[in-house]
UniProtKB/TrEMBL annotation:
Substrates-to-products reaction catalysed: 2'-deoxycytidine + H2O + H(+) = 2'-deoxyuridine + NH4(+); cytidine + H2O + H(+) = uridine + NH4(+)
Family under the similarity heading: Belongs to the cytidine and deoxycytidylate deaminase family.
Family annotation (Pfam families): dCMP_cyt_deam_1 (PF00383)
Domain of life of the organism encoding this protein: Bacteria
E.C. designation(s): 3.5.4.5
Record protein name field: Cytidine deaminase
Annotated ranges, domain CMP/dCMP-type deaminase: 1-128
Provenance organism: Effusibacillus consociatus
Amino acid sequence: MNGEKLLEQAKQARKNAYVPYSNFPVGAAILTGDGTIVTGCNIENASYGLTNCAERTAIFKLISEGKSDIRMIAVVADTAGPVSPCGMCRQVMAEFCSPGTKVILSNLNGQSKETTVGELLPFSFSKGDLHGENEI
Ligand SMILES: O=c1ccn([C@H]2C[C@H](O)[C@@H](CO)O2)c(=O)[nH]1
Ligand SMILES: [Zn+2]
């Protein structure tokens, strides 16, 4: 499984997005160490703030299935350049990924950017901060 194939899965999941308010469907796909793929789409609500992004849908599905070991995340939307995950999703990625975990961001024209969770959210708040273990 490579980034291109994972992006294809994200594009498929994007078709399931529930976006009556923004009309901005987003798809995400996660690859784990054992080759499992879990996908997600954004799911909106009449109470706008309850919206769940595609990335968090995929991560929460994965965790709720008792899986972890995220190796790669792909995200796709109809943006001018590669889509850029929101801050909330970056924080959730930081919780369940390593700083080096690969993230492939793309648009529908095939413009894509490969980055990492650590690049997307440097100096993130984490478990260690709660327990007094992190130093600057
Ligand atoms: O990376 C992103 C950016 C935005 N959205 C969603 C949230 C909302 O449903 C819509 C517009 O912000 O796109 C995602 O799912 N992922
Ligand atoms: Zn988000």
